[in-house]
Specification:
Structural class: alpha/beta
Number of helices: 5
Helix content: 40-55%
Number of strands: 5
CATH architecture: 3-Layer(aba) Sandwich
Number of domains: 1
Radius of gyration: 14 Å
CATH superfamily: Response regulator
CATH class: Alpha Beta
Length: 141
Amino acid sequence: MIRRTDTLLLVEDSPDDYEAVARTLKKLNFGGTLEWVEGGEQALEFIDRALANDLPPVLVLLDLNMPGMDGRAVLRELKSNDRSRAVPVVIYTTSNNPADVAYCYQHFANSYHVKPLGSDALRSSLETVLAYWFELVVRAS
């Protein structure tokens, strides 16, 4: 069950991709809070603050290819830090490069999704991600 206090953090440098995700979540009646940061450094700062307040995001959707600190560096940092290691990270990127997929799983990504093209495919993809992470997964209280 999605609670109002549940946070989905989208780490995405493209405002257009953010808008598409936000619109789709609204259509899906996502009951939690969508937070958006445009870069890796911002993501780490957001997660650090959230953990300090005992309100970590339920899920991080992480783009790989961003200027500055990219998604690979964010993933490495999150999964190598005892405080943030348990925060689920789903890679949400345009890259279907097998080397990227392998890298992310080697660095403990929880899942890897290639961003779909088109609004129907995006809806289906996000519906699946939300159902799994917010409905099926048993979370620590």
